[in-house]
Write a structure and sequence with these properties.
This protein is of the alpha+beta class. Helix content is about 40%, strand content about 25%.
Length: about 400
């Protein structure tokens, strides 16, 4: 036995849905839904599916129709409720395919008036049909109003969701802007910190330069003090020698012999100073002498120490002398100060001592930096500077780098 399953499909505007595939499945109360056949809708939207597979399943057999929805690309359930069954024909009525799915349509076909001759319809029958149609129209209007309300509510919900989404987007953008501002602040702080580090490094370098200058001034002051002490000592020794000479003479001495002898003693003292401390020179020598003029003032009589008590101080004359040693004949071979920068302490001492220099060593704080030459234990500064002319016995200073404590 062959069964026929028919249904009419319309689009959302009520126009026939043409060339759409519809499939039929049959199932019983406890059985699955095996496939029974398929067909395509014609120009009127009508499709009839012939089932030649034989009897339907027992136990309340039923038929389900599915249609192919091209917008979703797959088959969707249409209905499993038929309007009527006339022998082998199963009529499922008319369905309008909308965005919300299949919608069952009221059946207003010629079949509604089957077996009725229009000529035989009386006023009562027509009125009944009109009432039925009005009821159907009212039902359709109610459904339309419900759908319209539902659509309005859905639109309101959609608008509310869009507003919420926009609000969230605005909040997100505000947070992104805040993060960007914080990043900019952090970059500025990092730059300021780097600038501060550079300033600190510059201040450290300036402090080290001041320390070097202070050490140099201390060294020069120390050298000047040593020179002044040595000069004072030499002058004291010279005066002592002159005093001893005058006491030893204790007899008449011509002015010429006295002046020449004194000048000779000054010259000898100047040579001794130069020999022992080549950097220093004997300057002017001033002295006061008391003696008794004799031979019309051409000679001087000096008294021995034990004779001084017998001589009246009023009879003695005071003579002031100012003498300068003659250095015109003294020629010293000058040498050039070498560059001992970055030498070790021992190597620098050997280099400078070979020139006959008097060397003073200072230790200067340094900071070792990665990637730069090592300065610890090496000469970081010298005085006099390289290339200066120096004489044997002159003083020199070297500063040795000493790492600071971390």
């Amino acid at each position: 036995m062959a069964f026929i399953y028919q249904v009419i499909l319309q689009d959302s505007e009520g126009k026939p849905l043409v060339d759409t595939t519809v499939r039929a499945y049959a199932y019983g109360e406890s059985s699955s839904a095996p496939y029974r056949g398929k067909n395509r809708t014609d120009d009127s939207g009508l499709v009839q599916i012939e089932d030649s597979k034989g009897e339907l399943p027992d136990n309340k057999p039923n038929v389900k129709l599915k249609y192919y929805d091209s917008s979703h690309g797959k088959s969707l359930d249409l209905t499993d409720k038929h309007d009527s069954r006339d022998g082998d024909l199963w009529d499922f009525g008319t369905y309008r395919i909308t965005a919300d799915g299949p919608q069952k349509q009221a059946k207003l076909t010629q079949k509604s008036f089957a077996g009725t001759n229009p000529a035989n319809l009386n006023t009562e029958s027509l009125q009944r049909r009109v009432t039925e149609l009005e009821g159907i129209e009212a039902s359709l209007n109610e459904q339309l109003a419900a759908k319209t309300t539902e659509a309005t509510e859905e639109k309101a919900k959609r608008q509310e969701l869009e507003a919420t989404q926009q609000n969230l987007n605005d909040q997100l953008q505000a947070q992104i802007d805040e993060v960007d501002r914080e990043k900019a602040k952090r970059v500025k702080l990092e730059k300021d910190l780097e600038d501060k580090k550079d300033e600190v490094d510059q201040e450290k370098d300036q402090r080290k330069e001041l320390e070097r200058e202070l050490n140099r001034l201390r060294w020069e002051a120390s050298s000047s003090q040593k020179k002044a002490e040595e000069d004072e000592k030499k002058i004291t020794e010279l005066n002592q020698q002159i005093s001893e000479l005058a006491v030893q003479q204790g007899a008449d001495t011509s002015l010429t012999d006295f002046f020449e002898g004194t000048q000779e003693q000054v010259e000898k003292a100047a040579k001794n100073i130069q020999k022992k401390r080549g950097k220093f020179r004997l300057g002017k020598v001033q002295m006061k002498i008391k003696a008794l003029p004799v031979q019309g003032g051409k000679s001087l009589k000096f008294f021995k120490k034990e004779e001084m008590s017998e001589v009246s101080s009023d009879s003695l004359s005071e003579i002031q002398l100012e003498l300068s040693p003659n250095q015109s004949g003294q020629v010293t071979q000058k040498k050039t100060m070498p560059d001992v920068s970055n030498y070790t302490e021992a190597l620098a001492l050997r280099k400078l001592e070979a020139l006959g220099l008097d060397i003073e060593i200072l230790y200067e704080a340094i900071t070792e930096r990665h990637g730069q030459p090592k300065k610890a234990g090496r000469v970081v500064r010298q005085f006099p500077s390289p290339g200066k002319k120096i004489e044997p016995g002159a003083s020199a200073m070297i500063a040795i780098g000493k790492p600071t404590e971390p």
